[in-house]
Predict the structure.
Amino acid sequence: MKSRSYSTRTVAEKDLKREWFIVDAEGATLGRMTSKIASVLRGKHKATFTPNNDNGDYVIVINSAKVRMTGKKMTDRPLIHFTGYPGGQRFATPQQVIDKNPNKLIEHAVKGMLPKSSLGDKMFGKLFVYEGAEHPHSAQKPKAL
């Protein structure tokens, strides 16, 4: 019997070649940058992409405090967080989030673009966001994304 050419090939964990990428967020637009990061974390840039496996790469983001948004979104757009308790809806603008913790804005944007499952949690674990230009991952020799 002939094999089907359209069947999904699964790559074993030991055969995966994970790479490290670095992204400088200084002056980058939040949505465009984070959609590219989410794609790399999922592994969609690889020929071996499988939707039900985590075969993505590691991503380091530096200068998270210097990310930008177009228009007046930085001051006017509300970000909503629900604590889980009655009346627990909390609102903040992206500028307030950056002032409090600059890494949270990028993490929030990327997490929303990943699968909502334990697989998405594994992918999110490969994202490292830093406020300044220094990071402790120089031994991994990250490439520019």
The first strand starts at residue 20 and ends at 24.
